[in-house]
Amino acid sequence: MQILREWAARGVHWVGLAGAIGFGGAAHAGDYDGSPQVAEFVNEMTRDYGFADEQLLSLFHDVERKQSILDAISKPAERVKAWKEYRPIFITDARIKAGADFWNQNAEALARAEKTYGVPAQYIVAIIGVETFFGRNTGRYRVMDALSTLGFDYPPRADFFRKELKQFLLLAREQQVDPLSLNGSYAGAMGLPQFMPSSFRAYAVDFDGDGHINIWNDPTDAIGSVASYFKQHGWQAGQPVVSQADLGVDSAQDAVTPGLDPQMNLGQLRAAGWRTHDVLPDDLKVTAIRFDGENGPEYWVGLPNFYVITRYNRSAMYAMAVHQLADEIVRVRGVH
Q: Distance from CA of residue 168 to its chain's centroid?
């Protein structure tokens, strides 16, 4: 990436560097050479965004169709785990300790992100912990290969992944990086926080001020970007995330919210017999949640900040794992 940045400083555009960085130097035909879909895509990119078609075609010459990606996305969905099975995946001693270490190593950036965006440090840390175990599992596929494979060879979601491929090429141009150099998950999620390209362009920030956004191996940019994402999705500074609830004998268990969107206020939920452990206003919009816990049913009331966490991943169990990992990391740091 450094070579491209030096060229960028001299005003050289990456799409004009096909020969210099190997876009067209392969001796064999690429998997997408001659593809009508790719040709149509390249025409759109040249027409709508000013890319040069010959350089894009050279780029696609080096893109590989990955059958392992198609196998991964097409395999039958595993049985949805209960909370008692899901929680132990993320709330582990190793992940908690790694979170405390990550916080200590990046304390200045986390404090600054909390002050700038109003998002507590522990939630930023927990997101990175749940997503990639603090950088241990960021993905092994080239993002170009992943998005091209899914955009051109996976019809059920081809439109979505082609849009992400457009966003990826735009971000590579903006950041002056070789698009073949960036790795991610099989679905194209990138870096420490696993942003899709559209999220990168909308929410990622240059939090260390070096002129480039690097969420792959720059924790400062990753920290600022997660905080920016939460802030722009409505995080309320200083407000709680979730409250545990008790149900009386005659309480309405069917008050559990279908889906994640808040569909009632707390006063309505209390009228159905739910009692929160925390004092909260009746007019607060909430999500009523039931989990199958290790010791039986657990009832929780998701507050507006809980809903914000579900914007990162549309799962109540995901958001609860982030919340509880955040709490555990705070506890461990307080012990030392």
A: 15
Strand 183-184 relative to strand 141-142, pairing: antiparallel
Which candidate in 131, 174, 298, 328 is catalytic?
A: 131
Mean of all residue pLDDT scores within the chain:
90
Q: Are the beta carbons of 227 and 166 closer than 8 angstroms?
A: no
Q: pTM for this structure? A: 0.89
**Which residues face 296 on adjacent strands?**
293
SS (H, E, C) the chain: CHHHHHHHHCCCCHHHCCCCCCCCCCCCCCCCCCCHHHHHHHHHHHHHHCCCHHHHHHHHHCCCCCHHHHHHHHCCCCCCCCHHHHHHHHCCHHHHHHHHHHHHHCHHHHHHHHHHHCCCHHHHHHHHHHHHCCCCCCCCEEHHHHHHHHHHHCHHHHHHHHHHHHHHHHHHHHHCCCHHHCEECCCCCECCCCECHHHHHHHCCCCCCCCCCCCCCCHHHHHHHHHHHHHHCCCCCCCCCEEEEEECCCCCHHHCCCCCCCCEEHHHHHHCCEEECCCCCCCCEEEEEEEEECCEEEEEEECHHHHHHHHHCCCHHHHHHHHHHHHHHHHHHHHC
- 131 included as an active-site residue: yes
Domains of the chain: 19-73+140-221 (1.10.8.350)
Q: Tokens at residue 259, please?
A: 């889906």
pLDDT digits (tens, 9 = 90+) for 140-198: 999 999 999 999 999 999 999 999 999 999 999 999 999 999 999 999 999 999 999 99
Joined together, the tokens standing for residue 65 give 């169709």
